[in-house]
Amino acid sequence: MPRTPPATQVRVVTLTIDGQALSAREDETIIEVCRENKIPIPSLCWMDGLSIVGACRLCVVEMAGSPRLSAACSTRVAEGMQITTNSERLQRYRRTLVEMLFAERNHVCSVCVSNGHCELQWLAQTCGVDHVRMPYRNHAYDVDSSHEMFRVDHNRCVLCTRCVRVCDEIEGAHTWDVMGRGSDCKVITDLARPWGDSDTCTSCGKCVQVCPTGALVKQGTSVGEMVKDQQFLPILARRRHIR
């Protein structure tokens, strides 16, 4: 009988994050190590259980010996790394990014169903964004309420693509995708068909639960009523991997 090849042994490395000496597996990313050690680091596109896209750039960190900022979600740890997660430079950078997200779309928190439960709103508070220093685009985006259970408001979308990835990688339907470029970019269902006319959507609601803002919500929710549960995702991802 053929022998089962031995499991590859993962090496443990030591590194420093914000002056704290830590150890981690070499196959882990910086953001995973930060989460494990309760080191706060902001992100919008990254989520445990989904593939990495590095789209929002909010998780960038400084590394000793490198003038460039590195995305913590897509950078694996290495022996001897010295990482800074919350310098004055990073604070300015992140605040600007959050302001740009607000200016690009139409995020009006006071009338949003996710008010008080929104990751973008929480990031704005964390980064000290009490006003936006750049002009708003004020472009009206459509709202698709054709689905009997859910709706999508493109005015509140931050293009994190969590919905695209969870639909493809966890549910296996690949109903969602991305269309367009730059400021005209938007998430779509079934080649830009109305969500209610989708032939592939299973109405599982996973996309709604992983959405960080009020872009994807349940029908019938009012201001501040949309509370999302994202704790199911890592469990589903692990079970799917085991299979």
The gist of it:
The chain is 24% helix and 16% strand. The protein is of the alpha+beta class and 243 residues long.
Characterise this structure.
This protein is of the alpha+beta class. It is 24% helix and 16% strand. The strands form three sheets. A five-stranded mixed beta sheet has the order 2-1-5-3-4, with helices on one face. A three-stranded antiparallel beta sheet has the order 6-7-10. It has a two-stranded antiparallel ribbon with strand order 8-9.
Sum up the structure in keywords.
Ubiquitin-like (UB roll), single chain, five-stranded mixed sheet, 243 residues, alpha+beta, 6 helices
CATH architecture of the largest domain: 2-Layer Sandwich
- Gap between N and C termini, in Å? 24 Å
Please indicate the percent range of residues in DSSP E strands (runs of 2 or more). 15-25%
Tell me the major beta sheet.
5 strands, mixed
What is the CATH topology classification name of the largest domain?
Alpha-Beta Plaits
**Which CATH class of the largest domain is shown?**
Alpha Beta
What level of helicity do the residues show? 10-25%
